[in-house]
C-alpha cells in the first residue's frame, strides 16, 4: 500500500502539471475550429465569383461561342456544299485549260504541217531535177514519199466545249461561293452585334445574383456569436495561465505532505520489519524474560516505536484519507462516471442549477432545441455545424440561395434575343443552269483519231537517211556544180529534220499530255456536277428551313449552360454548408482527451493515493495489536511473571525449602 501511495502521489503531480498543457492545447484546438467556421462559410460564398466570372466571360464571348455553335450545326451541310462546289470549279478550270491547250496545240501543229508540206514539196522538186541531171548514176536514189505522214487535222475542234466552260467562268461562280463562305464566317460577329442588349441585361442580373449570394452570411446568426465563443475560450486560457503558478505551488505543497505521510508510513513499516527481524534473531526461549538479550530487546523496542508512531500520526493519516476521498471520490462519482455514462450533460440540461443556461439562446438560435448532449452526440459522429446546431430551423437556406428570380430575368432577356443570319445564296438559278448545260454536254471530244496521228511519224521518209544518200552521191560525182547542189539539198533535209525535232515534238508531246489528262478528268465532270448541284440544293433548303430552329436551340443551349453554372454552384454550396462546414468531430475528440486527462490521470491518481493511504491506515490497528503482543516476548522484563505451573515447580525444587516463608497452619 505504501508503494502504491508513493507512485500515486507522483502521478498526481505529473497529471496536475501536464493538465495545463492539455487544457491549453484543447482550448487552442477549439479556438482554431471555431475560427475556421466563418472562414469556411466565407470561402463558399466567395466561390460564387467562379460561376459569375464564367457567366460574364461567356456573355462577353457570346459571338464566338453561340455563333460557333450555330456554324457547327449548319457547317456540315453548308461547308460541305461549298467545298464540293469549289472543288468542282477547280476541275472545270483544269478542263478548260487543257481544252485550250488542245485547241492551241492542234492549230499550231496544223500550221506547222502546212509549212512542212510546202518545204518538203519544193525540196522534192529540187532533188528530182538534180537527180535527173545526174543521169543513170543517180537513179538508185528515190525521193518518193517525201511528204508528211501524220495528219494533224484529225485533232478535233473543242470550241463548243470551250464556249460552255468560258460561259461558266464568266459567270464568276467562285466569287459567289466565296461570298457565301464569308457570310457564314461572319455569323459570330453578327450574333455579337444582335445580342448586345441581351448581354447587358444578363450581366446586370449576374451582379444581383452575386449580391444576393453574398448576403447569405449575414443571415446565419451563429457566425456572429462564434466570436464571443472564441473570446470566452481565450479568457479561459488566460485565466488558466494566471492560476498555473499557484496551482503548481499548491501541488508542490501537497506533494511534500504526501511524501511526508508516505515516509511516516514507511517509518512505521520499517520499525515493524526491524522489530520482526531483530526479535526473531535475538529470541532464546530458555532464557527468562528478565535476562533476554540486547538484540531481542531492540526488536521489542522497535515494535513499541512503531506503535508509538501509529498512535501519534494515525489521526493525520485518517484526516488526509478523508479529505482526498471526498475530493477524488466525489469528482469521480459526480463528474467522471456520469460523463462516461452520458448522464452528466443531461443532468446539466435538466438541473435547477443550470436552469438559466440556454445554449440556443447563447448562440442566437430561435426555438431552443439545441442541447449539450445533442451537440456532443452529433460531434461524436462528426456531423456538420448545420446538423449539430439544427440551423435548418433558423436559417431558410433554400430561400437564401433561391436565385430563380434573377435566372428568370436572364431567361426572359434571352427569349427576346432575335438572331438572324444574313441570307446565304450558294448559286443563282442561271449559274446552276450553266452547270447543268456543262454536265449535259458531256465535254467529251473524240480524241481517237488525234491519238492515232500522234503515234505516227511526222514524215513518211526518214530525212537523215535520205540526206546521207544524197551526200554519198555528192562524194561520188566529179561535177562540182552537181556536187554542190546535192550537198545543199542534203543540208536542207537535215535542217528540216531539225525543225521537226524542235517544233513538232514539243507540241505533239504537250498535246498528248493534254488529251490524256482530259480523258481522265472529263468522264468525272457530269457526275460531280450533279452531286454538287444536289448538295447545294440540300444545303440551301437546310438553311432556309432549319436555320431559325437551329439558332433558337443553340441560344437555349447557351442559356442553359449559363444557368447551369449557378445551379451547380447552388447545389454545391448547399451540400457544403449543410454537410461539410464545421464538422465537429475534432471537438468531441478534444473534449474526450480533456476528460481523459482530468479523470484518467488526475482523478484516478488522486483516488489511488487516498486508497493506498487508507489501505495502510486500515492495517495500522492489526499491526499495532500484533506489535504490542510481540513486543512482550521480545523486550527484557524487569519483573518476571510466575504462573501456577511455575510456582509448583519452584516449590518442589530443593532450593525452594531454603527460602520457604513460615505460614500459619491449622492444627487438627
Automatic annotation (TrEMBL):
Task: List localization entries.
Answer: Cell projection, Microvillus membrane
User: What GO cellular component entries does it have?
Assistant: apical plasma membrane; cell surface; cilium; microvillus membrane; prominosome
Q: What is its main location?
A: membrane
- Which GO molecular function entries does the Swiss-Prot or TrEMBL record give? cholesterol binding
Coiled coil (residue ranges): 192-219
* Bilayer topology annotation: Multi-pass membrane protein
- The lineage's top-level taxon is Eukaryota
What Pfam families does UniProt report for this protein, alphabetically?
Prominin (PF05478)
The record lists the membrane-crossing segments as 255-281, 302-327, 609-628
The record, for InterPro entries, names: Prominin (IPR008795)
Keywords assigned: Coiled coil, Glycoprotein, Membrane, Transmembrane, Transmembrane helix
Q: Does the keyword Transmembrane apply?
A: yes
Family statement: Belongs to the prominin family.
Protein's UniProt name: Prominin 1a
Amino acid at each position: 500500500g505504501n508503494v502504491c501511495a508513493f507512485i500515486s502521489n507522483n502521478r498526481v503531480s505529473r497529471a496536475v502539471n501536464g493538465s495545463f498543457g492539455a487544457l491549453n492545447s484543447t482550448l487552442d484546438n477549439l479556438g482554431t475550429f471555431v475560427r475556421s467556421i466563418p472562414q469556411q462559410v466565407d470561402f463558399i460564398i466567395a466561390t460564387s465569383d467562379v460561376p459569375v466570372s464564367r457567366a460574364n466571360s461567356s456573355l462577353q464571348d457570346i459571338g464566338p461561342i453561340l455563333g460557333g455553335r450555330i456554324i457547327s450545326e449548319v457547317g456540315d451541310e453548308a461547308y460541305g456544299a461549298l467545298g464540293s462546289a469549289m472543288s468542282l470549279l477547280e476541275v472545270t478550270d483544269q478542263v478548260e485549260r487543257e481544252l485550250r491547250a488542245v485547241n492551241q496545240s492542234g492549230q499550231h501543229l496544223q500550221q506547222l504541217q502546212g509549212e512542212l508540206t510546202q518545204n518538203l514539196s519544193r525540196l522534192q522538186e529540187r532533188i528530182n531535177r538534180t537527180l535527173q541531171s545526174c543521169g543513170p548514176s543517180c537513179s538508185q536514189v528515190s525521193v518518193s514519199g517525201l511528204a508528211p505522214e501524220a495528219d494533224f487535222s484529225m485533232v478535233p475542234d473543242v470550241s463548243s466545249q470551250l464556249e460552255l466552260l468560258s460561259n461558266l467562268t464568266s459567270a464568276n461562280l467562285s466569287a459567289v461561293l466565296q461570298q457565301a463562305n464569308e457570310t457564314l464566317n461572319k455569323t459570330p460577329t453578327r450574333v455579337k452585334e444582335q445580342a448586345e442588349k441581351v448581354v447587358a441585361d444578363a450581366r446586370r442580373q449576374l451582379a444581383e445574383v452575386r449580391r444576393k449570394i453574398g448576403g447569405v452570411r449575414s443571415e446565419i446568426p451563429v457566425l456572429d456569436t462564434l466570436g464571443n465563443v472564441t473570446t470566452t475560450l481565450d479568457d479561459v486560457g488566460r485565466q488558466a495561465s494566471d492560476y498555473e503558478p499557484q496551482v503548481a505551488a499548491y501541488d508542490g505543497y501537497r506533494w511534500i505532505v504526501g511524501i511526508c505521510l508516505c515516509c511516516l508510513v514507511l517509518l512505521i513499516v520499517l520499525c515493524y520489519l526491524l522489530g520482526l527481524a531483530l526479535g526473531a534473531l535475538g529470541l532464546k526461549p530458555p532464557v527468562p524474560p528478565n535476562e533476554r538479550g540486547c538484540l531481542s530487546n531492540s526488536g521489542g523496542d522497535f515494535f513499541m516505536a512503531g506503535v508509538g508512531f501509529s498512535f501519534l500520526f494515525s489521526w493525520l493519516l485518517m484526516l488526509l484519507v478523508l479529505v482526498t476521498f471526498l475530493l477524488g471520490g466525489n469528482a469521480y462519482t459526480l463528474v467522471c462516471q456520469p460523463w462516461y455514462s452520458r448522464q452528466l450533460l443531461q443532468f446539466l440540461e435538466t438541473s435547477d442549477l443550470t436552469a438559466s443556461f440556454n445554449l440556443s439562446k447563447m448562440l442566437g438560435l430561435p426555438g431552443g432545441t439545441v442541447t449539450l448532449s445533442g451537440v456532443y452526440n452529433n460531434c461524436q459522429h462528426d456531423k456538420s455545424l448545420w446538423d449539430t446546431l439544427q440551423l435548418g430551423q433558423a436559417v431558410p437556406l433554400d430561400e437564401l440561395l433561391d436565385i430563380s428570380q434573377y435566372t428568370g430575368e436572364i431567361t426572359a432577356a434571352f427569349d427576346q434575343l432575335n438572331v438572324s443570319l444574313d441570307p446565304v445564296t450558294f448559286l443563282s438559278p442561271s449559274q446552276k443552269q450553266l452547270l447543268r448545260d456543262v454536265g449535259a454536254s458531256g465535254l467529251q471530244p473524240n480524241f481517237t483519231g488525234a491519238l492515232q496521228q500522234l503515234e505516227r511519224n511526222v514524215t513518211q521518209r526518214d530525212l537523215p537517211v535520205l540526206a546521207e544518200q544524197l551526200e554519198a552521191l555528192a562524194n561520188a560525182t566529179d561535177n562540182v556544180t552537181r556536187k554542190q547542189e546535192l550537198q545543199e539539198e542534203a543540208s536542207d533535209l537535215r535542217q528540216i529534220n531539225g525543225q521537226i525535232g524542235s517544233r513538232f515534238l514539243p507540241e505533239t508531246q504537250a498535246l498528248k499530255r493534254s488529251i490524256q489528262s482530259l480523258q481522265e478528268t472529263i468522264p468525272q465532270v457530269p457526275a460531280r456536277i450533279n452531286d454538287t448541284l444536289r448538295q447545294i440544293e440540300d444545303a440551301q433548303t437546310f438553311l432556309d428551313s432549319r436555320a431559325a430552329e437551329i439558332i433558337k436551340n443553340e441560344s437555349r443551349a447557351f442559356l442553359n449552360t449559363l444557368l447551369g453554372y449557378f445551379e451547380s454552384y447552388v447545389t454545391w454550396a448547399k451540400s457544403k454548408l449543410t454537410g461539410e462546414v464545421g464538422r465537429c468531430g475534432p471537438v468531441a475528440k478534444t473534449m474526450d482527451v480533456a476528460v481523459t486527462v482530468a479523470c484518467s490521470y488526475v482523478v484516478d491518481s488522486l483516488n489511488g493515493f487516498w486508497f493506498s493511504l487508507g489501505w495502510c491506515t486500515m492495517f495500522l490497528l492489526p499491526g499495532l495489536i500484533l506489535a504490542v503482543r510481540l513486543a512482550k516476548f521480545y523486550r527484557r522484563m524487569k519483573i518476571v511473571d510466575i504462573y501456577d505451573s511455575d510456582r509448583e515447580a519452584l516449590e518442589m525444587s530443593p532450593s525452594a525449602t531454603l527460602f520457604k516463608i513460615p505460614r500459619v497452619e491449622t492444627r487438627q
